[in-house]
TrEMBL record:
<dbReference type="GO" id="GO:0003690">
    <property type="term" value="F:double-stranded DNA binding"/>
</dbReference>
<dbReference type="GO" id="GO:0003697">
    <property type="term" value="F:single-stranded DNA binding"/>
</dbReference>
<dbReference type="GO" id="GO:0046975">
    <property type="term" value="F:histone H3K36 methyltransferase activity"/>
</dbReference>
<dbReference type="GO" id="GO:0006303">
    <property type="term" value="P:double-strand break repair via nonhomologous end joining"/>
</dbReference>
<dbReference type="GO" id="GO:0005634">
    <property type="term" value="C:nucleus"/>
</dbReference>
<dbReference type="GO" id="GO:0044774">
    <property type="term" value="P:mitotic DNA integrity checkpoint signaling"/>
</dbReference>
<dbReference type="Pfam" id="PF01359">
    <property type="entry name" value="Transposase_1"/>
</dbReference>
<protein>
    <submittedName>
        <fullName>Histone-lysine N-methyltransferase SETMAR-like</fullName>
    </submittedName>
</protein>
<dbReference type="GO" id="GO:0015074">
    <property type="term" value="P:DNA integration"/>
</dbReference>
<dbReference type="GO" id="GO:0035861">
    <property type="term" value="C:site of double-strand break"/>
</dbReference>
<dbReference type="GO" id="GO:0000793">
    <property type="term" value="C:condensed chromosome"/>
</dbReference>
<dbReference type="InterPro" id="IPR036388">
    <property type="entry name" value="WH-like_DNA-bd_sf"/>
</dbReference>
<dbReference type="GO" id="GO:0044547">
    <property type="term" value="F:DNA topoisomerase binding"/>
</dbReference>
<dbReference type="GO" id="GO:0042800">
    <property type="term" value="F:histone H3K4 methyltransferase activity"/>
</dbReference>
<dbReference type="GO" id="GO:0000014">
    <property type="term" value="F:single-stranded DNA endodeoxyribonuclease activity"/>
</dbReference>
<dbReference type="InterPro" id="IPR052709">
    <property type="entry name" value="Transposase-MT_Hybrid"/>
</dbReference>
<dbReference type="GO" id="GO:0000729">
    <property type="term" value="P:DNA double-strand break processing"/>
</dbReference>
Length: 233
């Protein structure tokens, strides 16, 4: 206190005023401050997250009355990270999950008794944007490169049909623009697929044959298609 009075007037009133100010400052420094706290028990945040993993940082701030930055620090310390759910086509009920498990068990047993996965050929179709622009060229050193326009972002899509097995693609076809899969097109594709299998997978043809898998589109399940598959073996 002697150093604090060094440059202060010796007047008693002035000295008393300084003493009051210093005393008030010391008392205020030991009192809890208003506003949100920066300290919180990790267990409280962990309990909130375990009770509801979808809690937002804003909700944690409001519940525990702490700073937003403190929430991020504690979550990082506890090993939590923010992740989005994975989209699925639809929610499966318990009966559907049970059915899938049973089917998987059956397939595993079939593979053990009579291996078929390496004989499996899968087919599917998909609309794609296809524009095979070739830009690379070999001009002379002093020649200027030719110009190539960029693809239109609103260009039309084409239908890609592809069949593959565990080794890779066996056969694919890009249909002409504005053409889709119908009964005649699919049967023609099956003939071309059979030729490709004979050429690329001769061992598959000479042994137990192909296990063919495709979806239940109308062109895949028609009587004509089934007769074509029986014809091709």
């Amino acid at each position: 206190m002697t150093m604090l009075y060094k440059n202060v007037s010796t007047n008693d009133d002035s000295r008393n005023s300084v003493l009051v100010i210093l005393t008030s400052a010391m008392l205020l420094s030991h009192q809890p401050r208003s506003g949100k706290s920066t300290e919180v028990d990790d267990n409280k945040i962990k309990a909130l997250i375990e009770s509801n993993p979808r809690y937002t940082t804003r909700e944690i701030v409001e519940t525990l009355n702490i700073h937003h930055s403190s929430v991020h620090d504690h979550l990082k310390k506890l090993g939590y990270v923010s992740k989005l759910d994975v989209w699925v086509p639809h929610e499966l009920k318990e009966v559907h999950l049970t059915a899938r498990i049973n089917i998987c068990d059956i397939l595993v047993k079939c593979e053990e008794n009579d291996p078929f996965l390496k004989r499996l050929i899968i087919g599917d179709e998909k609309w794609i944007v296809y524009n095979n622009v070739v830009r690379k060229q070999w001009p002379q050193r002093d020649d200027s490169p030719q110009t190539t326009s960029k693809a239109n972002i609103y260009q039309r899509k084409v239908m890609l049909s592809v069949w593959w097995d565990f080794k890779g693609v066996v056969f694919f076809e890009l249909l002409p623009r504005n053409q889709t899969i119908n009964l005649n097109v699919y049967c023609r594709q099956l003939d071309n697929l059979n030729k490709s299998i004979i050429q690329k997978r001769p061992k598959l043809v000479n042994h137990k044959g192909v296990v063919f898998h495709h979806d239940n589109a109308r062109s895949h399940t028609s009587l004509t298609t089934r007769q074509k598959l029986l014809e091709l073996g």
